[in-house]
Amino acid sequence: MAWPSSLADQRCRLWAERTRSVGTLSTNGSEDRAGIGIPLAAALVVMAALGYSFHTTLSRATYDYGPGPMTILLFRSLTTSIALYVILRLRGLNPWPKGKALWQGLFLGVLLACQAAAMLSALYFIPASLLILIFYLFPMMVATFSHFTGIHRITAVNLVALCGAFIGVAIALGVAPEGLDWRGIVLGVIAALAVAANIVGSGFVMRSMNPIVLTFVMAIAMLIVYVVANAARGEVVLPRDPAGWWPLTGTVLAYLVASIALYSAIHRLGPPRVAMVMNVEPIFTITLAGIILDEQLTTVQLLGAAIVVAAIFANAYFGLRARRAQSAVSNDP
């Protein structure tokens, strides 16, 4: 049962018509959503979640060698910009969209830069586990934004699955509510709002822009922000030991792969489904932290992980049943 909204129904149909009219390849290099299977597109989302988890875990490992968050953010945006520029040139695509599309991409990049800054600042006030829990309000924000902008209707199954996934994340991260600072909570919510707005905005922009082009433009915007930020600080702290370059390189490459996978998946699956599956990222992070940082997983954390996975599979299963039923009705003479 969907939320009642005739205007949302009309916008969903308009979205579908525009998607079909894009074709296999637009003049701006946009690929057809039907050009890749749903299982492969879902695999891209999982790859993105895993890449971001590696990025988080290896970033923490990099701190032990001297560099701080702003150094990592500078290196990752610089490397991402260069790598994407080379990829686009090798594919014969123009990395610089024209007119409004360029400014839209830059704005989305600034949103991501603000999200990272808010996350890093929030760590001064609240524990990282609580911050991640607050940040993972963003799938619900994406679903809400997408419903009211007409991209995707929220169903009762979506709501139950999203809430179940959120509860699972809370259990898995084992957050303690004592000693909270309202500044950290506000910054965490700002970070969630920024990434939710970025995901929904990317869904609109990629109707006429190749996802790799968009990722490149956003990386350029983030690079500009972090160059200015590091210049204001007056220094860029490099690893004091050659061994420190390994986790720094790993976190940068993980972010690059994750970014390309994420925005390619948004282009093919739409923002709400992508945001739903991205709930596995904290679970991946917990697992990798146990392997790389020697952090121990508890039975309660494993229970939370199981709840998240169950919510994701339930959402996918019932969504598939609903699509099949709708297809059967539409094919009825």
Model description:
By secondary structure, the protein is an all-alpha fold. The chain has one domain. It contains 13 helices and no strands. Helix 5 (128-135) runs antiparallel to helix 7 and helix 9 (211-233) packs antiparallel against helix 10. The longest helix is centred in the C-terminal third of the chain and has 32 residues, at 299-330. The model is unreliable at 1-35 (pLDDT under 50).
Helix and strand element order: HHHHHHHHHHHHH
Strand content: under 5%
Instruction: Give the C-alpha Rg.
Output: 20 Å
Number of strands: 0
Give the count of helical stretches.
13
N/C terminus separation: 24 Å
Given as residue ranges, the uncertain stretches (5+ residues, pLDDT < 50) are 1-35
Q: Percentage of helical residues? A: over 70%
Q: Please indicate the count of domains.
A: 1
Q: Major beta sheet, specifics?
A: none
Shape: globular
Mean pLDDT: 75
The class by helix and strand makeup works out as: mainly alpha
Quick structural summary:
This protein has 333 residues and is mostly helical.
Q: Topology, please?
A:
Blueprint: H1 6-22, H2 38-63, H3 69-90, H4 100-122, H5 128-135, H6 138-149, H7 156-173, H8 182-205, H9 211-233, H10 245-269, H11 271-277, H12 281-292, H13 299-330
Helix pairs in contact: 2-10, 2-12, 3-9, 3-10, 4-8, 4-9, 5-7, 5-8, 6-8, 6-11, 7-13, 9-10, 10-11
